[in-house]
Amino acid sequence: MRAELWQEQRLQLSLTKELVQAIELLQYSAVDLEAFLYEQSLENPFLEIRRTRVRQRPSRTERDQKQWLENIGARAETLVGHLLSQLPALKLADREERIVRYLIASLDEDGYLRVPLAELAARFSASEQEMERGLRLVQSLDPPGVGARDLAECLLLQLERLPERDELAEMIVRYHFVPFAEKSWKTLAKQLGVSLGELQRVFELIRTLEPRPGIHYSSETPPLVVPDVIVVRGAEGDWMAAYNDDIHPELGWNREYERRIAASGDRHAEQFIKEKYRQFTWLAKSLEQRKQTLLHLTAVIIDRQRSCLEFGLSALKPMTMREVAEELGVHESTVSRAVRHKYVQTPFGTVELRRFFSNAATAAGDEAASSARVKAIIEALISEEDRRAPLSDQQLADLLRDRHGIAISRRTVAKYREQLRIPSSAKRRQYIGLP
């Protein structure tokens, strides 16, 4: 065995720092992109961030700008703050108020007390009786149902505060909640000596209650949704896509600072300027490439989803990322990065770009139907059904085939129904009007 040397030529793709940066820019959301640009301005002293963009074309109408600005959420009142604001009216003693405040701080975001009272009593160095009295005070506050330890107690607290008490509803929730929730109504009706219609009445009453009393209060600011692309309809009825230039500031190069540094005549300073200018030009090129990629992607979506733009997401056609990637001549991963955390403003609202992609639910008929369209049809069929004899999954599958030419299995119908959070036919059945 002897050692040998030989030459070999090989082509190999190498991910440079600039290429990695371009890939990252493509998948950034509008908010993340602006934060990234400001970070770059801190690293590059010649890079300027200009908030006032010089426009080469007339700006969009004030109404179009206002539409996406209205997506900025306002900070809502917190549940803890709402509860604490009611304490002065109770006129509690010092220790009692401290216990109540401690219990309020122990509630979760839904308004439930998940920690056992015995554990809280040990932490606060109080007796369980003191904690029990404090909890009853918390449960007397608004919103009704707050401070409950489980769903049954939450509903019961709300029933007890109704202007007209319902003894049957309170008894069912207090002693028979599990069989009632599972809709074992025939057995329960015999046990209680009531009719199915009365159980249905109680069910309708309980549906008006709030299972999560803290849901309308938040400790976080709702996320800001800014559209990257705006789709509008032209005067001749054609759809057009416009890039939202307001999502990031304009980049500029500080020529005055460059001249001051270059005037020193330092060779290292000149090399520093060249390196920073190369970074600046690459960043500007990456931003333009991101813009063009989004515009080309949106153009394909407009071409393939015209009916969706006309009638909403219920008219969505099957379209996969691989099909769009082949049409654009890019890799599927590029499309996936491009639609990640990106939003488009449409006539029916601001939606995520990813929503326009949907697999075909069936290949029957002249045209395949998207899963989104099938879900919309299933939801419409269920909303129109006879509540006393709700449609089974097999009946829904038959109606999809006979009325809409969509052939899918019963199992697929059940999967879509569960994704829509619609209960089974047995749990949707209502007994009002039956003997």
TrEMBL record:
One of its GO terms (cellular component) is DNA-directed RNA polymerase complex. InterPro entries: RNA_pol_sigma_54, RNA_pol_sigma_54_core-bd, RNA_pol_sigma_54_DNA-bd, RpoN_core-bd_sf. PROSITE patterns: SIGMA54_1 (PS00717), SIGMA54_2 (PS00718), SIGMA54_3 (PS50044). Pfam families: Sigma54_AID (PF00309), Sigma54_CBD (PF04963), Sigma54_DBD (PF04552). It comes from the Bacteria. GO terms for biological process: DNA-templated transcription initiation. Residues 69-257 form the RNA polymerase sigma factor 54 core-binding domain. GO terms for molecular function: DNA binding; DNA-binding transcription activator activity; nucleotidyltransferase activity; sigma factor activity. Gene3D superfamilies: Homeodomain-like, RNA polymerase sigma-54 factor, core-binding domain. Residues 271-430 form the RNA polymerase sigma factor 54 DNA-binding domain. Keywords: DNA-binding, DNA-directed RNA polymerase, Nucleotidyltransferase, Sigma factor, Transcription, Transcription regulation, Transferase. Belongs to the sigma-54 factor family. This is DNA-directed RNA polymerase sigma-54 factor (Sigma-L).
